Amino acid sequence: MASARALGGAIPTSRTTYIGKGRGRGRGAAAGDGSPRQPGSQAGSAGTDQRQLLGVAGILELLETAPSTNAESLAEQVFKEAEASINTGDEVTKFAHSLYKWTLQAPDRAKNAAIACNAVGQLERDNIKFRSPFLQTLKKDYDSRNEWKDVEETRWVSLACLVCQFYKEFRVAGNYVAALESPALTCIEMLLSTSSIKCHVYGVEQLCDLGPILYPKNSEKIDEMMDDLRRRLLASDTLSSSRVLFLEALEFYAGGWEMDETAVDYYTNKKAGI
Question: How does pLDDT run across 69-113, given as a tens digit for each residue?
Fold first, then answer.
């Protein structure tokens, strides 16, 4: 994976693009560091329009409950709260580490976490930018993933989803960050290559979500990945749940990374019990 410095630097269609329909948001308490939510400081305009700031725990609670379908609105909320309530370099670092820890507790949190990271990536206090401690921690875990992923599956799947969604959401001058492209593709491939149903669920989800973005420059690699899914779809030792997921990915791929509403509803219902 590229250095932290390098890393710092839905596709609309006429039909339905993949948005992970049927999967829920992350569950559980929002305070990523395990501490109770504390009241924030007061902010106001001309001493009149005062409101209570959310602080770090409150921002995590916002990310926990907010739908990711309106990324622009969520990003604006996160930026305003962080800008108003985080005042020192130490607080920037704490926010980065708290958000990272919170994200790796559940794979479904990756989308909103990536939106938040894109919103506050340039947040700086005392010469410390948010993206520096966040990306340093991300890079460390990504580089060491083979040492721990088999014994910490939820954390590994969450990290893989975060890398994928970070690639999708993060922009430099309006462009995707090239340094994140290979790690995102690697994470998808690793999720799909295991025998774990949980890995298959999120591997297919990320493949369908990022496929339209990754395919133009990685067509040969993704074609090989889909050929492997076809072989495994027909293998006698492939579980029925995995077959449903593989078939969904193959149909989405065959349709040019599009799927009509009838098919989306079909797979949503089929995956309900997985």
Answer: 889 999 999 999 999 999 999 999 999 999 999 999 999 999 999
d(CA 59, CA 106): 17
Mean pLDDT on 104-124: 96
Q: Report pLDDT digits (tens) over 24-73.
A: 444 343 444 444 333 333 344 343 345 567 789 999 999 999 987 889 99
Find the helix packing angle between 153-169 and 181-192, rounded to 10°. Answer: 140
Computed over every residue of the chain, the mean pLDDT equals 85
Q: Minimal CA–CA distance to 207: which of 179, 242, 166, 165?
A: 165
Angle, helices 131-143/153-169, rounded to nearest 10 degrees? 130
The tokens for 232 are 């495994």
Structure tokens at 235: 């293998």
